[in-house]
LexA repressor (SAR86 cluster bacterium), 404 residues
Amino acid sequence: MKDLTAQQSKVLNCIEESINKTGFPPTRAEICQKLGFKSPNAAESHLRALEKKNIISIAGGSSRGISIKNKKSSSGASIPVIGLVAAGSATLASENIEREINVDPSLFSRNVDYFLKVKGLSMIEDGIYEDDLVAIHKTNDFKNGDLAVVRTEDDVTLKYIFKENHKLLLKPANKDFDPIHIDLRNESAEVEGIGIGLIRKN
Amino acid sequence: MKDLTAQQSKVLNCIEESINKTGFPPTRAEICQKLGFKSPNAAESHLRALEKKNIISIAGGSSRGISIKNKKSSSGASIPVIGLVAAGSATLASENIEREINVDPSLFSRNVDYFLKVKGLSMIEDGIYEDDLVAIHKTNDFKNGDLAVVRTEDDVTLKYIFKENHKLLLKPANKDFDPIHIDLRNESAEVEGIGIGLIRKN
DNA sequence: AAAAATACTATATATTTATACAGTATAAAA
DNA sequence: TTTTATACTGTATAAATATATAGTATTTTT
């Protein structure tokens, strides 16, 4: 399957979010509003691109006629829990899966691909504690300030992300931890997904 | 909950079928076509009846704006979410139930009876934020230091609980809030349940 | 170097759709 | 007995919506 562009991913997210939140797909105008487009044709052409890539189907002549293909079982999905243990390990590879839990997919605003078990105290000031399970939506698309799972050259970390040109700032929520600065011209870094929720067990 | 009439059930089935088959809810006209009605108002009035009975919700001014409320999914128990709104109100009475969510019962250490939607910032220093859903196990048995839902004479509150003889201490996790001291000889207070976990949606 | 895909703005319009209003008729509840 | 809910037909229309067309600009592929 062809990869989606950043904009196409945004549109797809927007559709998923609408279905989860309202129960029905968005109109062209609603997509435009959410993503800041000024012409309905911006949404239209992205939808046609997604249709061409076989990600969605569009029912001609009917309003909100968008449906996402190969939709995963809508209820009670089994979602893996991944431990953030050693360097470079937050993948869905089976050896990293601690266990699976069943949650309502409509619980969070977007599709949850996995839960990341938090290690360390770097986000403690924003209420993210050790052993909390952070719900991750896999995407490489993010906004500044998003809570992101970032794979750097020698680590995988959960931090607030800010990007400005070639500079990446990974900001913890703990004054005892230093922000991580990455110059993308010298080092590589990849956004694996963004945090959309949290589960804590006492 | 009131029972549905035969026709209302047919309409509800029609909506479910449409969502399953096409991915989006039907229009009035489509309902009429499927069920053999000749007037769009036939569908409309059935929809309004279903809305009145709290089975569906209808988004005004938007096409196909029908969504089925608290649709249960196959796995995972359906657990109510209760808003901590006004004084003395955290009960399982249906008028306090904001919605229901499906979670794996084995997710938390004990049985979850309901989720309490947090209002206010009194527990913020321990990572419990406004609008977080705290998983509550109904019990009046507790240990000192437990996070408890306590019904006092004029309020329902979520605090750490400590009991010593006839004195009850309800301790917030926010230095801007004062601990609540209750002398059980003068005032009544009841433990509704204890917090065993948390769900946060970003 | 040319073609195709991406990523939009801007405008227009036919069609879809929700929704109101006016009726008719029957059954159930107050 | 009167009201309320159910169960429709039939007509009308404002608003919502899909969708076409005409552009501009950049990037990617061939």
Q: What stands out?
A: The radius of gyration of chain A is 18 Å. Residues 85-89 of chain A have pLDDT under 50 and may be disordered. The interface with chain B takes residues 19, 22-25, 27, 59, 62-68, 71, 74-76, 101-104, 107-109, 124, 127-129, 147, 195-202 of chain A (CB under 8 Å). Chain A has two domains: 6-68, 80-199.
